[in-house]
Amino acid sequence: MTYQPPQPPQGHGPAFPTPPGGVPYYGPPIMPTRKRHNKAPWIVGGVLLFALCCGGFGVAALSSDENPVSQQPAAAEPAASAGAVEDVVATTRGPFGTCAEAERAGALPLRAGDPGYSRALDLDEDGQACVAATPAPMKPAKPAPKPVPTIEDGIWTVSEDVPAGTYKVTRPISGMCYWAIVKSGTNGSEIIENDLPSGGLPRVTITRGQDFKTNGCGTWKKVG
User: Fold this and answer.
1) Whole-structure pTM value
2) Alpha-carbon 94 to chain mean position
3) In DSSP terms, which residues pair with 111 in a beta bridge?
4) Does the pLDDT value for residue 85 go beyond 50?
């Protein structure tokens, strides 16, 4: 035979199962549900009627009082500044490959320790990259040596046509050669010295006020 729990008294909840012969336990008394009346529509209707009579002032006041938080604009979250973004990018930037790349990025002047600095771009190793190395001072060029005076076949006035000094032929004489030193203005009539060498490297010394005549001796070069 199956055990059946007893029925609860009126106004109580259901009985909990108990073993045969035990005292049944019933739930707490069930309280009657009270019907709640919603008074909000009546209140709102009265307020609206009052607002219509007073020119709408009450509606504005009511909407402002009922939800004061909704009337306040939400505070905007602070946006990250452009400078902060640039700082983040700069700290994560690797070395620039070229100075043109650094210039396009607006990173010049680029010094040691700056993001993007590379010793490969610091040619003079002064701690500042992408700067032309200071050129070494140029030494003044040596003046070109003056051409050594020479005398060819002809009659030459010393200090006017050729400078005074000692002259020597550039090649040994192998044929007929004649030279003469005469006093200037005498048309060759006043001979100071002359010779007809047939070989070797003859040498002469001429001074101001003299004429020098040479024929067949080749080129004479000043040696002193």
Assistant:
1) 0.40
2) 14
3) 128
4) no
